[in-house]
Amino acid sequence: MEDNKLVLTLIHRIELSPEYAEKTTGKKVGSMNEESLDIFRFQQDAAHKYGLKCTIQITYASLFNKAAIDEAIRYRKEYGDEIGLTLLGLPCPEFKAKYKTEDFCLWMFSDDKKKEIIDDVFGKFYECFGYYPVSTSCYFLDAFSINYIKEKYPSVKCAVAACWEEGPKAYHTCNNSWYTFLDGGPWNPWIPSKVNSHIPASSREDDCGLVAIPHLSRDLIACFDGNGSNFGTHPQNVLRGMIYYKDGDKIEYPYLYNLIDQYHHLGKYNNGFAYNMMYVGPGWLNQLGRWECNYELLAQSYLDGMKYYGKLKQEGKLLDLTMGEFADYYRGCHKDYMDSENALWKDILYGSNKQYFWYYDPFMRTCLDFNQGGAMIDLRNYAARLDQKVGIGTNNVYDASYPYLIQANYRAGYFTHYAGAGTVKSCKINYHGQSTDLCLCRTLAKFDKKDNGDVVITANPVTVVLDDTEIKVQSIFTFQKGKGVLEVERKLLNDVEGVEFVEYITAGFGVNEYQPDLVGATLSVDDQQLEYAYQGRKLAGKGVAVANCPQVSSRLEMRVEKGTVEAEEGIAFAPIYHLRARNVGGIKSWLKLAKAN
Predict the structure, then answer these.
(1) Arithmetic mean of pLDDT, 94-123
(2) Helices (H), 249-341
(3) Strand partners, 160
(4) In DSSP terms, which residues pair with 126 in a beta bridge?
(5) Fewer CB within 10 Å of terminal CB in the chain, N or C?
(6) CA distance 392 to 511
(7) pLDDT category, 29, cuts 50, 70, 90?
């Protein structure tokens, strides 16, 4: 595992005629192209100055520009840089004249048009370089496009395939105009399933043939809670978020370096594997400046960022790989499809004790918030294996998000004005007619991985006071490898009689703030069943509580070691459902995710 080095994939895009440039700069295409090439050279030279390898992703527009092609070839010959092909940067005079459209996002086209564009762009690449690329990229590559690329152009083995949490938050912070909705996928490299590119493959048969990497390495707290475009590991993201300060004539960016280091630290939880990527086009270093920054600051920040990566490499702490090299490296150290990706992430933006634990495997992606006692604040059911179509001609033209079952920022979570209506998984404690929720208990957690691959997250004990009595509780979360099961144990640590624990999940489904119709879902306990009808009905028993949501092919089961279980439907004003398990003196329960029916 290269002695727990941070693996870096550094990607520069030769991007002529970017979709925003003419309107934001007011320049003509010719002068803009020359400026873009100058910025590309600057980025390349900054990386090579500090001894870093680069992957060059060339756009369709650039394939019509001899100077761009010549520059890519020069860097390949002089430094061994890899030349890949990006499916970004489509909107150029040649593309618009040929396809008679202002659209530019590959995944939004019809399937037939996707194939036509892919063949066109790959064919043009071959015409320019005499071979097909080993890497490609896009903001998002749906399973249809990936499967077609791998079948038609088998040389491709690595792709930038998604932006982590590029959904409604980004939409709202871009004046409701940035229609790239990509929530719900991995934050780190993965091998996509043939069924859905968000989902990690579960087997060799399910393996799409590519290693995918995210568009940016982002802060796993700040990006989830706010606008991810301000919190990524490239310097201009940090400038856009205004997360820097001046020290005399010098600019300091400790947050950027801490974010890079935090990704290096993730090796502790992933068998030594730690990864960081940076993917930038020339638009970030516009000569007119961007945000409140002038060009000089933009350029200096880029040099400083490259210098930090170079310093890590000199110290033997960083391994820089091209995209093609990384695909081979990743497959060499990720041979078990069932292994999980783990991130016990601390707050490095504000320096608080806030801590999230992120987890994904082929069955689920989820997040536990230890600022809320270990409450589950995000849940995506990968076990559902949603065969999700996107693009013109489908029922889903532009939203490529993988649906949530829990999303505490979009659907309120514990803290909502209408009690119990937000999506979250937590535990209530009842004693002598008084009640509290572990969502109100801040704590921290420790990570452990068993020999069998199970991941165990143990929270520090918390103390709640009910009826003037201290009640000490510890929460232990065990993610069972290869089963789609989360075991949760709430231990009562002191001798108090009659303390009731109510483990619960409040869930729905969707891709934004608005709940689709729940009619069609069913709730059951033992041999009792009800069809969802917004009537607030409740079922109770001693077996297993089940929610079945065929709309998103999802089945949730909650069972308990000792005690009883319940299922309850919501009402129209609270369009959710509840599964609960109850026991006195502590509780151990299991949540299982599966495909509906």
Answers:
(1) 96
(2) 254-265, 295-314, 323-333
(3) 137, 213
(4) none
(5) C
(6) 18
(7) low
| C-beta atoms surrounding 382 within 10 Å | 27
Tokens for 526, please give them. 């033992």
- 201 closest CA partner among 218, 186, 184: 186
Are the C-beta atoms of 504 and 568 separated by less than 8 Å?
no
Collect all residues with Cβ–Cβ distance below 8 Å to 192 and sequence separation of at least 6.
143, 146, 161, 198, 199, 200, 201, 208, 210, 212
C-alpha distance from residue 362 to each of 29, 199, 574 (Å): 45, 6, 31
- Per DSSP, which regions of 122-164 are E strands? 135-137, 158-162
**Are the beta carbons of 426 and 414 closer than 8 angstroms?**
yes
CB contact burial 156-173 (16+ within 10 A = b; e otherwise)? bbbbbbbbbbbbbbbbee
For 21, the token pair is: 């440039």
Higher per-residue pLDDT: 592 or 226: 592
Which pLDDT tens digit goes with each residue over 417-428? 787 789 999 999
Closest listed residue to residue 63, CA positions, set 25, 17, 31? 17
Tens-digit pLDDT profile for residues 356-409: 999 999 999 999 999 999 999 999 999 999 999 999 999 999 999 999 999 999
Beta carbons of 526 and 475 less than 8 angstroms apart:
no
- Whether the predicted model's global pTM rises above the 0.85 cut: yes
Question: Quick one: residue 586, left, alpha or beta (phi over 0 = left, psi -120 to 50 = alpha)?
Answer: left
Helix (H, G, I), strand (E, B) or coil at 464: strand
Q: In whole angstroms, what separates CA 450 from the centre of its chain? A: 25
147 is written with which tokens?
């499967």
Q: Evaluate if residue 20 carries a pLDDT over 90.
A: no
pLDDT tens digits along 186-196:
999 999 999 99
Average pLDDT, the chain: 94
Closest by CA to 325, choosing from 534, 53, 5, 29, is: 53
257-285: average pLDDT? 94
Asked if residue 346 lies in contact with residue 354, where contact means CB atoms within 8 angstroms, the answer is yes
* Confidence category of residue 597, pLDDT binned at 50, 70, 90: confident
Non-local CB neighbours of 580 within 8 Å, separated by 6+ positions? 502, 503, 504, 505, 545, 558, 565, 566, 567, 568
| Residue 212 zone, left/alpha/beta (φ > 0; ψ -120 to 50; rest) | beta
What distance in Å separates the CA atoms of residue 589 and residue 486, rounded to the nearest whole number? 8
Q: Return the structure tokens found at 11.
A: 């990607």
Contact yes or no for 386/403 (Cβ under 8 A): yes
Q: Identify the burial level of 330 via C-beta atoms within 10 angstroms of its C-beta, where 0-12 means exposed, 13-18 middle and 19 or more buried.
A: buried
Angle at 383 between CA 381 and CA 387, to 5 degrees: 90
With cut-offs at 50, 70 and 90, classify the pLDDT of residue 22.
low
pLDDT class for 293, splitting at 50, 70, 90? confident
CA distances to 21, 180, 277, 401 from 176, rounded to whole Å, are 19, 11, 27, 16
Copy the structure tokens of residue 298.
Answer: 């933009």
Q: Is the pLDDT of residue 463 over 60?
A: yes
Three-state DSSP state, 318: strand
- Position 363 scores a pLDDT of 98
Please say if the pLDDT value at position 590 is more than 80: yes
Neighbours of 272 (CB within 10 A): 14
